[in-house]
Amino acid sequence: MADKSNNDEMSLELFIVLARAYNSVVAHSTRDIQSHGLNTTEFGVLDLLYHKGPQPLQKIGEKVLISSGNITYVADKLQKKNLLVRKASPDDRRVIFADLTDEGKAFFEGIFPHHQQVLAHAVEGLDMEEKRQAVELLKKLGLSAEESFKTGPIV
Hints:
The chain is mainly alpha-helical.
């Protein structure tokens, strides 16, 4: 029984430490993104389009974890800033693609290297080997949590 209690306590401590670490790292990212007049969702859309090329609007929401209604709003905001353009699919006129404008591409190229440095600074408390270990362990944790979530809640 003591082992179960200790395991439960350690699991709770892990959750708290993980959440606090995540919040601290994200604070660095958010501050940098906001300094460029963007919110994190807008940045995520620009990042996706920059690195993956034109995407159907419906798929963008799935990839940056926002609802289809929100992606329309975000696309509108980015279009007003002349960073994004919508294009009808040549294969299916019901599908609308989003792509970066030349200005959007230049803007993202201008801010991304600094953002990458901000993230590196945020995690500089770990050396390279510790980062590798953290990545490995967090992937393992994430996959396990995802799998156990599929089985349903504990009753």
